[in-house]
Amino acid sequence: MESLTPMMKQYLQLKEQHKDCILFFRLGDFYEMFFEDAILAAKELEIALTGRDCGLKERAPMCGVPYHAAENYIAKLIDKGYKVAIGEQVEDPSLAKGIVRREVTKIITPGTVIEPSMLRERENNYIMAVYYQSDGIGIAYADISTGDLRTTEFIGMDFYIHFQNEIAKITPREMIINEDGYAVVTQGEKSTVLENCYITKYDSWAFKTDYAANLLKNHFRILNLEGIGMDSHSFSISATGALITYLEQTQKKSIHHLQKIQYYYTQDYMILDKATRRNLELTETIRDGSRKGSLLWIMDKTSTSMGARLLKQWVEEPLKDVYNIQQRLDAVEELKTNLIVREDLKEYMKNIYDLERLVGRISYGNANPRDLIWLKSSLCFIPNIKKYLESFSSKLLEKVNETMDTHEEVIELIRGAIVDEPPVSIKEGGIIKDSFNTEIRSLREAITNGKTWIANIEREERQKTGIKSLKIGYNKVFGYYIEVTKTNLNLVPSDYIRKQTLANAERYITADLKEIESKILGAEERINDLEYQIFIEIREKISMYTQVIQKTAKSIATLDVLLSFADISDKQNYAKPTIHKESLIHIKKGRHPVVEKMIPTNMFVPNDTLLDCSENRFTILTGPNMAGKSTYMRQVALIVLMAQIGCFVPVEEATIGITDRIFTRVGASDDLAQGQSTFMVEMSELANIINSATANSLIILDEIGRGTSTYDGLSIAWAVVEYISSQENLGARTLFATHYHELTELEETLEGVKNYCIAVKESGDDIVFLRKIVRGAADQSYGIQVAKLAGVSEKIVDRAKKILMGLEFNDVNNKLLKEEKDISEVAMTQETQLDIFHYREDILLDELLKIDLMNTTPLEAMNHLYRLLNMAKDSR
Ligand code: ADP
Fold it and tell me: Which of 287, 595, 634 for mutating ligand 1's site (highest number of atoms within 8 Å of CB)?
């Protein structure tokens, strides 16, 4: 250590304080990385790994990136989940005594980036703090690029499940968590696997309630936490305290633009678990995770990034309160019927930049002059928008209008100070208008006049010396110089001082030239400094308006989302649903919003739905594969969801009874990557539904029990129908698609259960899908016909038909099931036990007969015997 060079010592000191980061160490025009950081970064960034003498025997591994191109490299590392600490020179190298002082000025982490190039425009980038205790969890999350900050907590029964649901909704990019929580979230059966989320353990002191409460009071400048609705939420306080501490630590400054915090209750929103979000393809498709093909893709016709982000939030948080939903629907209706105004408003919207992120950068001290011009030009459109809004009478649009400020002072400030087309750089001048500051004006005059002065000297020197080709030039090393070609050297006067010799010319300076040069260059330097200072002042002044501009931005975003809803409702022929607190869901001619867009126009067959909590609470849906069962069930869920989001729905007419949760168990989702079998996943999802659903939930179950043997599966499915449909247990509105035709018999015995099937037409040996839902049970499964339709070879299809006939004739258990009404009762009778016993005996005999004794070694014979004995024991 002693032998290290002073610079390396400095490097290692900084690195010691930021062990979990890759340290970008500023050396001249480069950021250099050393030792393990260098090896890692060289690999991840695909840049050359070199070495540098560091005072030790071996050279230190090193790699580096030019500082002006650093942003791209940092973005790459962040994208891969690393943290980057920027070690900057914090004193002027020319003034430094000894080694230049360096400090970490900023830590960039996946959840705290604000540079536009590292963010997705139409999505939030959340950092979340989690405070876990054995009896509850608090979460707080922020998007520091927009200033959004929210918090909530979960206590009591099922608190962890609520937490998991919330995580699935928010999908934070980064999470900090207390030590106890870290173990739970990352290990064991409760581990919450978060794709693409960077999780770190964080210091426990930052979560301490007293510390956190004081921090919040200081940060929000309040005397008590009542004002922000957090006084009785200690889990939330701890999480928020840690979040703000972490942000200040990484940003190395106070984060003033997080000026408002929203404490929210998850009960105010429809709850959707991770599987349901995935199955209903709310924001991305199951197949390839793309946006195209998702509900969001259909609903998002927003013009601004702010609108797109809010719309995503609305889609992920459908409402439960009739009044609030109604407000959105009324606003959509007004905009829908007013086509001309809507089109005009959309045009204005297109001119509005991302105000949230602009003010974020302004109050962060990161905005450049062009950002201010964008802010001004965006704000200039607001009076026009407000004028249109005045003609509307729905409450929500009135509120949007009220909260939208015209920000004249901000506009005037920018208009008065900043030139119309400024550069991006803040250090090279050309930003401030002449008219804004008298010193700037006179310095600019000096610079302009300077050019004339130089031109005059050039003319005078030519006349004086008689050298026609004499010219005055400029370079960074010598400043202004007089250049004379070699052929004219004899004419050079004696007061010329030679500075540089070129191949066929000499360069000189004179006292006069240097005097003028110092005036011009002094003015240039001064003006750049002055413009920089004025710009910073203006930016700071504008940052005082952060909160009001954020409010305006939210209003613009809300209007954008409502316009988007109105637009699709109009273009896709959606209708306004009637929303009520009762349980009735009555849909006439409903369509699946995504499937109808994926198939040729007008080819989608609409279907009706009737569900309530009494006579029609449980629909058993049968029909061959490919008939349209899944599509139908998802369509019902999506219509309910869209209605509660506040959008019109793809129906002719609909009454939607508020639903507190939607659960789906659709298809065999493949979680094998997580080491669970398909059946295990299916059953744990089912358990979650049974445990968490209420009578006001909507449950969609597709082919429950498919992952196990026929009899196990049928028994489970049977018991599930009994349990869910019973009002004593649950009585929730349910759609249940099954290939166990035996279940359709339950309509006779269970209250509220109704059979429906999707009609097909037989045409000779083939079938035609009619896609129409009708009352009653399907009489056949038509699996073989579907296989034929799908292109399975005729040979196989024919053979399958023969096997089927044989099976139908032979299947003892099939007969058993057909003969008896209620399997659960039957299972208890002696007769059944006998039948099952005979069935097992058959299997045992089959196995015995398979043994080829003449070709079996004694050891194999022992093995066979052992296996058969076990089978016999099992069947007892
Ligand atoms: P199942 O679940 O019964 O196997 P799906 O719901 O997967 O069937 O539907 C199969 C295909 O049928 C869908 O991909 C879709 O293209 C088409 N389809 C389903 N319902 C309709 C409908 N109502 N109108 C037109 N096409 C439909």
Answer: 595
User: What does 749-770 look like in DSSP terms, one character per residue?
Assistant: HSTTEEEEEEEEEEETTEEEEE
Residue nearest to atom 9 of ligand 1 (CA): 628
pLDDT digits (tens, 9 = 90+) for 795-836: 777 777 777 766 655 554 544 444 444 444 444 443 444 344
Whole-number Å distance between alpha carbons of 562 and 826: 57
Q: How many Å apart are CA 472 and CA 509, to the nearest integer?
A: 9
Full strand arrangement of the beta sheet holding 50-52: 50-52, 60-66, 30-34, 22-27, 84-89, 102-108
DSSP track, 565-601: HHHHHHHTT-BPPEEESSS-EEEEEE--TTHHHHSST
- Give the bridge partners for 146, in sequence order: none
Give dist(CA 700, CA 234) in Å, integer. Answer: 37
The binding-site residues of ligand 1, defined as CB within 6 angstroms of any ligand atom, are 595, 599, 603-605, 623, 625-631, 771
Q: Which of 402, 359, 326, 358 is nearest to 559 (CA)?
A: 402
Residue written as token pair 């299809």: 797
- Measured distance between the N- and C-terminal CA atoms of the chain, rounded to whole angstroms: 75
The pLDDT tens digits for 157-183 are 889 999 999 999 999 999 999 999 999
Atom of ligand 1 nearest to the CA of 633: 6
Sign of CA dihedral 324, 329, 334, 336: positive
Expressed in angstroms and rounded, the spacing between residue 704 Cα and the centre of ligand 1 is 19
Distance (Å, whole) CA 639 – CA 61:
59
Cβ contact 429:416 at 8 Å: no
